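Lay summary. Proteins are chains of building blocks that fold into shapes, and those shapes determine what they do. In this project we predict the shape from the chain. Here is one chain we studied, written as its sequence of building blocks.
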Amino acid sequence: MPKCAEQKTRLLSLLSLLERETDEEHPLTEERLRAMLAARGIDAERKTVLDDLHALADYGYDVVNRRGRGGGFFLASRTFELAELKLLVDAVQSSKFISEKKSRTLIEKLCQLTSRYAAGSLARQVYVSGRVKTENKAILYAVDAIHTAIAENRRITFLYSEWTIEKTLRPRRGGARYEISPYLLTWEDGYYYMVGYDAAAGTAKHFRVDKMSDVVPGASPRDGAAWFAGFDPAEYTRETFGMYHGEETSVTLDCAEKLVGILIDRFGDGITFRRAGEGRVLCTVRVRVSPVFLAWVIGYGREMRIVSPLSVAVELQQLARDALTELHETENSHV
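And here is the predicted shape, written in a compact code that computers can read:
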């Protein structure tokens, strides 16, 4: 092997050893590094290895030489800190739009970004079995196609599916393709959604990306530029996902004080509180009243009730009565 090529191979191998075999708790002596290089078929003298280590440090790698007993060389910092990698692993694990197989593949790649010792702590965190995960293995390609269309100001066409009682996905519209002008991707409740403009309907629509397939950027430019100019993504997602449908109203809730954190998590820090007796608070929120919101309130039983407006409280009572009526009718039908 020519000397120049041999030097490059040795330097890259040394860097690989530092990245995968060392960290602050696991330094390697120069002698041990030479032995590991030799195991890879690379012979190097002591001075050569030391010179290479200095060259890597000069280039910008955080190579540290800890002196004394138990010391040695190690890579002190990397592109991602261990805490950051744990955060990314957790995000991949909890993402419903990433299949279980792809989750494991991505986590394995994340583990390559730290030492093998630290990677072990990441691997012990991995648990994806039993979680609700998409089976759409092409979702990453769909996301890439959507990003491409947004960047190039093009519409997209795609098939959109729905679940059947046989637990299979069936294309809607009898397999007819949708044509939408994509404007953004948003992540809500573990799922990826594409928000775009439907020219035929003259309004915004959203689609779960894991239910989209055969996404193809078209040749036509996007519609809805004027609509998107006044578009507030945060407001759209707040109103569209979860409980925010219906007419927006200022609602006052009488709650157990222990629910303050839940209320802030749900509605943000713009809500107001005032004490209403021992262990109780009054909370005023701006919310789009809907059956989902009312059912959410009912779910807390005596720990939460609607104080005002009276019309919303009456609406909640009617929802509860309707549910009880439905339950009694179901019970009677089985008698």
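What the prediction tells us: Residues 125-130 have pLDDT under 50 and may be disordered.
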